[in-house]
Design a protein that fits this description.
- 24% of the residues lie in helices and 40% in strands.
- With 101 residues, it is an alpha+beta fold.
- The protein has a single domain, classed as 3-Layer(aba) Sandwich (Aminopeptidase), CATH 3.40.630.
- Strands 3-4-5-7-6 form a five-stranded mixed sheet, with helices on one face.
- β6 and β7 form a beta hairpin.
- The longest helix is centred in the middle third of the chain and has 15 residues.
- The protein starts with a strand and ends with a strand.
- This is GNAT family N-acetyltransferase.
- Keywords: Transferase.
- GO terms for molecular function: acyltransferase activity, transferring groups other than amino-acyl groups.
- InterPro entries: Acyl_CoA_acyltransferase (IPR016181), GNAT_dom (IPR000182).
Length: 101
């Protein structure tokens, strides 16, 4: 993600995860010095637009358990927990999903 000529974060996503056939946001990171300036909200809106162009009707992601700031961001943007589990490093995670209208 760029703001003017400066990189402020990055995002990765899968249109279709082969394990569950759902779209997933892999990484969504805003540089610390650019947090709380609305960049994440703008970037998420752009990503959701791109997913909708591909006829995607929902997207999932995971948040490490205890990441209060991350969980709050996703909750504020319409995501909700659908499951919990462990990642490949045995860290506890919550799986979030958002359905598009």
């Amino acid at each position: 993600m760029k703001k003017e000529s400066e990189y402020v974060g990055f995002v990765t996503y899968l249109l279709q995860n082969p394990h569950d056939n759902c779209s997933w946001i892999g990484l969504f990171i805003i540089r610390h010095d650019h947090e709380r300036k609305g960049i994440g909200t703008i970037a998420l809106a752009l990503l959701e637009g791109r997913l909708k162009e591909h006829k995607i009707d929902r997207v999932r992601l995971c948040v490490q358990h205890g990441n209060i700031k991350g969980a709050s961001f996703w909750n504020q943007h319409g995501f909700h927990v659908i499951n919990s589990g462990f990642d490949n490093r045995n860290n506890r995670i919550d799986i979030y999903e958002k359905a598009f209208r």
